[in-house]
Amino acid sequence: SMPSEILLKIFSCLDAVSLLSVGCVNKLFYDLANDNGIWLKIYSSCLQPKRTIWKMKSEQTEAVPLGCAALHDKKPGYWKKEYILKQTAAVKTRVMRLAKPLDPYTGLPFKNKEAMKVSGLSWIIVLKDKNGKEHVMEKANLSFKDTSVTILWYSTNWPCLDIVSTLKLFGVTPLLLEQSRPPNKNGPRRRSLIAEYHLGNLTESSVAVGADRLVQLFSLNPGLLVGIWKEKNEIAFVMVSLHYHQLLERSILGSATVQYAPPPNKPVLDDIDPEYGLHDYSLHLEMHGRSCTYLRGTFRNLFCRKGDIANGYLRLTVVSLKDNRKHLPLIGTLGLSWETDVFKGNVKDCYVMNLTLLDEIGEPFWCFSAPVYMELSSKTSGFYDYMGHIYTTNYADSEGKVCVKLVWLEETKEYIIVNLVLYVSTKKVNNWYGTNY
Question: Would you indicate the residue range of the signal peptide (predicted)?
Answer without folding.
Answer: 1-19
